[in-house]
Design brief:
The complex is a heterodimer.
Chain A: E1 12-19, H1 23-30, E2 37-46, E3 50-58, H2 64-68, E4 78-83, E5 86-92, E6 98-100, E7 103-104, E8 120-122, E9 130-133, E10 139-141, E11 146-147
Antiparallel strand pairs in A: 1-3, 1-4, 2-3, 4-5, 6-8, 7-11, 8-9, 9-10
Chain B: H1 12-27, E1 38-43, H2 49-60, E2 64-69, H3 82-92, E3 95-100, H4 105-112, E4 117-122, H5 128-142, E5 149-153, H6 160-169, E6 175-179, H7 188-196, E7 200-204, E8 216-219, H8 230-236, E9 255-257, H9 278-296
Parallel strand pairs in B: 1-2, 1-3, 3-4, 5-6, 5-8, 6-7, 8-9
Helix pairs in contact in B: 1-5, 1-9, 2-9, 3-4, 5-6, 5-9
Classes of the chains: A mainly beta, B alpha/beta.
């Protein structure tokens, strides 16, 4: 029998295949509520990624929008919605069309780095992993982005 | 069209409308009356040409201008945010024209106020009124924008004006020569975009051989500080100075353009030739800015 390092959950969300070392940043974006029961796993072995992190949230089903907000730092994450210990729904994360207030613009001359304001990046599915700053109009790859 | 922030926001139809209105206002400015309208010029950076061109455009249509030029002695120096300054300006005026050293500043202001905003330059990003007046100048001097042969000469790597012009002309099937020193070539992402749009271009390091072929020579300044190596600058600087002798074999319709101010990249002996058109270009800026102000103020008929 496969050894379970983290207790299974009855109802909630499991996020698997988070790059090792990024679980805390993923949680910082998802902002669990004070009533959520959260299990964090770090450095699990993975065939595809060698090492990976994992998050289980008991009692809360994350929406696709909430899940997509982690797409920049966990691009290959797999999300399972669990109901009565069974996987009810599986999905992958996708970069949303509009990313507000999550990342800093890497262009030091961008107005977002000079004024107290929220950054907005736009993304088009045809552009792969590229994002365009709504303000300075520069294009960056997801890997260049700095999370707030 | 609520604001004018970036050439990327403008459709080809809208560009044509602005070109037509500029031509019509040049012929008969009395058709529009902007009296009792106030334009606020918010210039966080020095600019004589652009600001005075806007002021002239507004005043010649009967409008008024209030101006903040530079930040010294203003509330900005006391630490006021850009959003607050803009919101106050919006209470004082009907339209904001702004220049700012930070890229995206005009877009941000346009989201903060409920009057029209015109971007008069945001860092290295956009300067759409320059691109539009360049298009108007090319149209006026050639009678068409379609299928022209243009040489863009000088600093093509950092020159915001030439990047923007290349995109603005793209819908009109131009043929480009990009003439620059090797270290100041047109960036590859722009060349890729042009290739994807089916635009033909050739890169050159000298201008002489192509002079007889071209309709427009658009010259920009090569700044010494762009060269990591002083010796390299000394080697190339004279190759990009246009003089009357170089233009002897030019076509009759060929015009030399320059966004100004020029330093020495066009010799003064070109000024008296039939090819010199950069002073007309500066004047055309007033008509194009009149068209922009009129359209955004909702006064275009």
């Amino acid at each position: 029998m496969k050894e379970l390092k983290v207790d299974p959950i009855k109802n909630g969300t499991v996020i698997d295949h988070i790059p090792a070392g990024r679980v805390q940043r993923v949680l910082a974006i998802l902002k669990p509520r004070s009533t959520d029961i959260v299990m964090m796993g770090m450095n699990f072995s993975s065939r595809a990624m060698k090492k990976k992190d994992i998050i289980k949230i008991e009692g809360r089903e994350l929406t696709q929008n909430e899940v997509n907000s982690i797409a920049l730092i966990a691009p290959h994450a797999k999300v399972s919605i669990i109901r009565e210990y069974q996987v009810a729904q599986k999905s992958r994360v996708e970069i949303p069309n509009c990313i507000e207030g999550l990342v800093v613009c890497p262009n030091p001359k961008c107005i977002t780095n000079a004024e107290p304001m929220v950054t907005i990046f736009n993304h088009n599915e045809s552009e792969g992993r590229e994002l365009t700053c709504q303000y300075c109009e520069r294009v960056f790859t997801a890997d260049e982005m700095i999370h707030i | 069209m609520k604001h004018l922030i970036s050439m990327r926001d403008l459709s080809a139809d809208k560009i044509v409308q602005l070109l037509e209105l500029a031509a019509s206002l040049e012929k008969d400015p009395s058709q529009i009356d902007l009296s009792r309208k106030v334009m606020a010029a918010m210039f966080y950076e020095a600019s004589t040409r652009t600001r005075m061109s806007f002021e002239s455009a507004m005043k010649r249509l009967g409008g008024e201008v209030i101006a903040m030029v530079g930040t010294s002695g203003t509330s900005v120096e006391k630490g006021e945010t850009l959003a607050d300054t803009a919101k106050i300006m919006a209470r004082y005026s009907d339209i904001i024209v702004m220049r700012h050293p930070n890229e995206g500043a005009a877009r941000y202001v346009s989201e903060q106020v409920d009057i029209p905003v015109v971007n008069a330059g945001d860092g290295a990003n956009q300067h759409p009124t320059q691109s539009l007046l360049d298009l108007y100048t090319i149209l006026k001097s050639q009678g068409t924008l379609e299928g022209l042969k243009l040489a863009l000469v000088g600093d093509l790597k950092y020159g915001r004006t030439v990047h923007s012009l290349a995109y603005a002309l793209a819908p009109f099937k131009p043929e480009f020569y990009f003439v620059s020193p090797k270290s100041l070539k047109m960036p590859s992402h722009i060349l890729n975009d042009l290739t994807n749009k089916g635009i033909s271009f050739r890169e050159k390091t000298t201008i002489e051989n192509i002079v007889p072929e071209i309709d427009i020579m658009y010259v920009t300044r090569i700044q010494r500080e762009r060269f990591p190596d002083r010796e390299e600058y000394e080697k190339v600087k004279n190759a990009y100075i246009i003089n009357a002798n170089m233009l002897k074999k030019a076509k009759d319709n060929m015009k030399v353009l320059h966004p100004l101010p020029r330093v020495n990249e066009i010799s003064t002996d070109v000024d008296s030739t039939q090819y010199a058109y950069y002073f007309d270009q500066a004047e055309n800026g007033v008509y194009m800015r009149q068209a922009i102000l009129t359209t955004l103020l909702g006064e275009a008929k």
